[in-house]
Structures are given as structure tokens and as C-alpha cells.
Automatic annotation (TrEMBL):
Top-level taxon in the UniProt lineage: Bacteria
Start and end residues of each stretch annotated as Disordered: 121-140
UniProt-recorded name of the protein: AB hydrolase-1 domain-containing protein
Gene Ontology MF terms: catalytic activity
SUPFAM superfamilies with a match to the protein in the record: alpha/beta-Hydrolases (SSF53474)
Gene3D superfamilies to which the protein is assigned, alphabetical: alpha/beta hydrolase
Pfam families tied to this protein: Abhydrolase_6 (PF12697)
């Protein structure tokens, strides 16, 4: 449970944010911080094991990472907490809601992976509209193909924002990450489970996301009886950096739902009016 964390001191409800694969808590703060600003929350950003400044102290499997995050939550927060994640972080957050719903007050999933195996994902049929000439010129050569696949909002400014996020934070453990990504334990054992989570959920997807797509996420909404689903045009897999204003608006709606107390009888059938026994 030795995870590097940045935690604000705000004495409000706690939101814990999990990062994309191979990124750090600094990148996650850049993604979610503006969307959460002004909400009077205690914001917590974690580095996953083998990522950023967190040591690789668990086996290189997604279940081990999930268990490590749950152990950290058990020892460091007053559960339940709001839980947010992007991409692989959202994949783990959804898994925590399935396996440990007692820890989760509400769930924000941004470009979540639904299935780990790339061949199993439903990806968009159409390529994004072309960006302006030279929009990828400032990206390192080894990242251009990835960014061309991942980005829907294709401008030099978005590229610079994404690159700055990818370069931020601690070094991570490349060997651990590679073993995790290529090993048999990359998929959670309950990945295909439709175990429902009954708390407030928002699922945000990019219409031009050619990494995880947007269709599988819609089909997975059957798991979330209180779920809102949004697909955003001119957004790809780095949606938080591509469409920050929309992310903020949708996050604020999720917070409103997640922080509003439910009436005691919200899951019961409505009572019929008392008509004194007369039909």
C-alpha cells in the first residue's frame, strides 16, 4: 500500500483520481484539477504501483494493482469516496466499484477501457478530420503515430498540452509496466462481469478515440443504473486535455448528483395514494 499521493487539505468530501497507464499523479492533476476546481473537495491523486514515484511492490497484474489501491484507501481515507479515473485508471476504478462498492460514493470514468485486449475493442470506423498542417511537428518521432491515433482535437496546442502531461511526474518502472501490459494478468479476472454499481456514475467518451472507442462504454452502461453516458465530438483518448471545458461541465454535473443526498425511499416503488379503500 506504499503509494505516492498528493492530497489537498480541503476539509470536504474526498475525490481520489487514478491515472492513465504509464502516466503519473502529476498528469492526472493536470487533467482533473481544473474540472474539480471550486467544488470544495479534498483532491487526492495517486501514482499506481510501478508508476511515477510509487515503487513496484506488487505482482505485475491488474488485480494486484487494484488490491493495492483498495488497501491504500482502506488505510488512508474515510470511505466511501468519490472515485475518478481516465483510461486504465478508469478501468481500475470500475473494477473497484464492482469488487469493493463500499469504498465508492460515486464513479467518474473518462475514456475508460472496458476490455484490455485491443482486438476485443470496438473502435470508430472513421478517421478524425485532418488537423492543420504541421500539427504534429513538435511531437517526438516515436510518439507521432500514437498521437495521430489517440487525438480527436488535432492542434499544436493540444499536442503540447498532452506532451507536457506525459513528461510530468516521477520516472516509473518501465520494466514493471511492460511486464504488466504484456502479461496474462493485464485483464482483471472479472472484466466481463455485469455486477451493477448503484451509485452515481458518469461515463465520458471521445467520438474520435481510436484507442478504446466509445461504443463498448455505452453497452457497459447496463452496469450503472444511475449512470450518465456522454460521447464528445472533437475528442479522442486524451479527452481531459482536448476538451477541458466540457470535462469541467460534465464533472460538475456528476458532483451535483454524487453529493446530493438521496431520499430514504429512492429505490422503492412509489406508494399509491390513500383513497380510503375505495376504487
Amino acid at each position: 500500500m506504499n503509494l505516492a499521493a498528493d492530497r489537498s487539505t480541503t476539509p470536504g468530501p474526498e475525490v481520489v483520481c487514478l491515472p492513465m497507464f504509464a502516466t503519473t499523479r502529476a498528469a492526472t492533476a493536470t487533467a482533473f484539477g481544473p474540472a474539480l476546481a471550486g467544488a470544495d473537495l479534498r483532491e487526492t491523486y495517486l501514482d499506481l504501483p510501478g508508476h511515477g514515484d510509487s515503487p513496484a511492490t506488487c505482482p505485475p497484474t491488474s488485480q494486484a494493482l487494484l488490491d493495492t489501491v483498495c488497501a491504500w484507501l482502506d488505510h488512508h481515507v474515510d470511505a466511501p469516496v468519490l472515485l475518478a479515473g481516465a483510461s486504465y485508471g478508469a478501468y481500475l476504478a470500475a473494477g473497484i466499484a464492482r469488487q469493493r462498492p463500499d469504498l465508492v460514493r460515486g464513479l467518474l470514468l473518462v475514456c475508460p477501457g472496458i476490455t484490455i485486449a485491443p482486438a476485443s475493442r470496438t473502435l470508430p470506423e472513421h478517421r478524425p478530420p485532418p488537423g492543420p498542417a504541421g500539427w504534429l511537428d513538435d511531437a517526438p518521432t516515436d510518439l507521432r503515430t500514437h498521437l495521430d491515433t489517440a487525438l480527436g482535437h488535432r492542434t499544436p496546442t493540444v499536442v503540447a498540452t498532452v506532451l507536457a502531461a506525459l513528461r510530468s511526474g516521477g520516472p516509473g518502472d518501465d520494466t514493471f509496466q511492460q511486464t504488466l501490459r504484456t502479461g496474462p494478468g493485464y485483464a482483471l479476472p472479472d472484466e466481463t462481469s455485469d455486477t451493477p454499481y448503484h451509485g452515481p456514475v458518469s461515463v465520458l467518451t471521445g467520438r474520435q478515440d481510436h484507442i478504446v472507442g466509445y461504443a463498448d462504454q455505452f453497452h457497459a452502461m447496463r452496469r450503472y443504473p444511475r449512470g450518465t453516458y456522454t460521447v464528445i465530438d472533437s475528442a479522442g483518448h486524451y479527452l481531459p486535455y482536448e476538451q477541458p471545458a466540457l470535462l469541467r461541465a460534465l464533472t460538475q454535473d456528476w458532483l451535483r448528483r454524487a453529493l446530493t443526498p438521496l431520499s430514504p425511499g429512492h429505490i422503492t416503488a412509489p406508494r399509491m395514494p390513500d383513497n380510503g379503500g375505495h376504487g
